[in-house]
Structures are given as structure tokens and as C-alpha cells.
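Schema walkthrough. Field components (list of strings):
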Amino acid sequence: MHIHLTQAMSSLKIKNFCFNGIGPLNILLEESECIGITGPSGAGKSLFLRAVADLDMHTGEIFCGDVESESISGPGWRKKVGLLPSESSWWFDCVGEHFDNIEFEFFTTLGFKKGVLKWQTNRLSSGERQRLSLLRLLSNRPEVLLLDEPTANLDSENRGLAEKIVTDYRIKNRASVLWVSHDIDQLKRMTSRCFIIDNGTFAQI
Amino acid sequence: MQLVSLSPFDLFTASLLLFILAFFSVKMRLGLSGQIIIAGLRTTVQLLLIGLVLKALFAHVNPALLTLIAFLMLLAAGREIIARQKRKLAGWWGYGIGLLSVFISSFSITILALAVIINNKPWYEPQYSIPLLGMLMGNTINGIALGLDRLYQTTWEQKMVVEARLMLGQEWTKAIEDIRRESIRSGMIPIINSMAVAGIVSLPGMMTGQILAGSPPVEAVKYQILIMFMISGGTGLGTMAAVWIASRRLFDRRHRLRLDRLKNR
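Field assembly_structure (string):
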């Protein structure tokens, strides 16, 4: 499959956005910007990402570049605005069947060798599942990344690799990233600003 | 050959089997004894009533009355499809999907068989049309109920997988295709099984009845083959239609999975 490395990537603009009783929110992410979201469990961090990916009902507008979410189909929007859930799912027998386009350099940068595409999905460890699901999302070439605790199951070495591949992707493709994490040190390291969701309010910290 | 007429006492003797079942159900705490007795009573009353209705119908062929009875059978079929499902679509959809699927499969196939294959005069001759429609709908609702039950249950259990596929930008048809395929398969397996074992393991009910009533076995067999093909067509098409419409209803315009449209019974 042909890959547009020079594809113009875009910002994420969230206007008067309400979801699950929280909001209205107004957030603007620049191209190549990464912002963090934290907060106690159950505060609505994952629900926020789901609503931005248009998987849950919401009101208000979201733009990816100039494109408003309602102006294109749901699947079209989710190809642009890719959500990585905190727990990954695998539905075919082999890893490779889940990938539409395969760039091998991707797999080697996250520490996988040739042959990983033939691995059985029911024998993956939780860390392998998490790293492979990140690769699966990136191979879709989304313009905005919504990452829900993307390194929660990883050891420090793999956490470093995952952080690096997201940063490389973000800079190379000028992609915006929303990063949800409980790890404040990681958010300080990875993001330019941080928001906290607590008790139905959204505040910058 | 003379048909041996059954007396009420003969039927009472046979009903002792249900009481034995109910007794063991209480002992083993299956919680089914009430249902067994009620279903047995329903069978007796409903069949006696339809016996009287058929007697009246055969005496004077009346297309309006025939249509009325066919539609009453259809409404009952729609209700029975959802009656024993663990989950169903909320509102009119739960009832409507079954009803519509039975209608488009059973009615069209029965009319086709009557008008083109059997070719009676008039084509709707009640002695043929009502029993054929009844057999077809009885089997079709099994397939539809199994298919829908499987669809709702599996989608509920595999919510994460379906949503993970949507998150990668897949269309709803793609995200649910495996579940849909499995649901249609589970609705169609019983009828495929009964075609495969007919004559070897089982002697199908209609043919047995005709033989008991004194028909030549080969004539009975030919009708049974016709019925088997009709039932397979009806069950297969009905299950496909029901699973297709219901799976569409599980997603909205934005291709979101809408499990809130399912409710527990």
C-alpha cells in the first residue's frame, strides 16, 4: 500500500463539547502538539476519548483540521481520529490478519522480530498486546491520536520504546495527541500541557 | 386401512408423561414444572381450537376468513419469537423484526408453493394452505429465535471487540460480520440437521401423520420432501432477514454500537 509520508496533518479543535454530563469544553490542539489528561479512576477520561472518537453521544463540534466530524461518516472520522483503548482486542487467529498495511520498520522499532505477524493472538502477553495494538493503530495513519493509558502494561524499557514511537510519529506526521495517563511524570515528559478531570469538571494544571 | 380414533382417555394416558416430567422437574429443581404444565395445556387447547376452526373453514371456503386466520397465526408467531429470548430490542423493534421476517419468508414461500407447485383450484384451498403455512411458520420462528438470541447475546459479550473494530475505522457491517455469520449459522443448523437425518434417524411428523391416516407412503414422502425444501428456504431466508435487520438496529447513523437499544426481559 502506498504511504503518504508528506500528508498534511492537522490540529484538533473541540468547541462547546459536552459528554456524559461534563462540559461544555473548548480545547484547541495545535499540529504536533501532545496534551495530557489525568484524573481519578471513573472521572470520565476514557469516556472523553470515546466521545471525541464519536463512539458515544455528545453535543458540540469537533474539527480535525477544517473537517467537522458530522460532515464525514463515523468510520471516516475514526480513521482520522484514532482511539487506542486501554485494553486491546484481537479477533482473528493471527496477528498479521489485523493489519491492513504493514511497514516492517514499525515492528522493529518496538522490539518485534520477523515472524510476529504469524503469532497466535491468544498467546500474546499483555505487554505484547499493548505494543501491537499501538502499531495497529499507527498503521492506519491517523491524523489525531487518542491514547488511553498506552503504556500501562509495559516494563520501563518497552515504555521508553512506546513513548519514542509515538513522539516520532507525532513529529514526522505533525499529528496531534491526547494522552490519558495516571503517571504524572510520564505526562510531564510527553506533553506540553495537562488537564485534570475530576467531579465532572475539566481544568488545566 | 382404517384410522384408529383416539378417545379422550387415550390422550389423558399420554399426558401422564408430562406429569412425570413435572414431578422430576420439581425434585431436580429445574424450575420448569410450571412451564411444562402450561405448555401442555396450551398445546391441548390451541390444537382443539384450530381443529374446530379448520373444520369450519373446510366446510365453506372463504378467502376473507382464511386471510384473517393466516394473519392471526403471523401475529402469534411474532410474539413467540421474542417470548423466550434473554435479550431483545426495546420498543416495537423487538416484535416487529420477527414479524416482518416471518412474513416475508413464510408467506411468500407458502404462496409460491401453493400457486406454482401444488397448483390447486382455488390455489388457496384451506386444506392445503393452512397446514403448509403453519408448518412453515413453526419452523421459521425457531430459526429466527435462535439466530436473534445468538446475535444479541454474542454482541453483548463481545462489545469490546466490536468497538475495537469500529475504533479502527471499520464500517458497522465489517465490525459485526463474524457475529452475524455465526448467528445465521446457528439459526440454520437445526433444519440442515433434520434434512440430513430424515428417513434415517427420524420419520418427519407430517409424513408419519399422512401414513397413519392411510395415504400411500410414496405420496406422503413426496409431500414431505416438498415441505422440507420449503422449511429450509423459509428458515434460511427468515433468519437471514431477521439477523440482518436486527444487526443494523444495533448501530446508529454514526456507526456507533448501541447496546442501550437492547433490554433484558
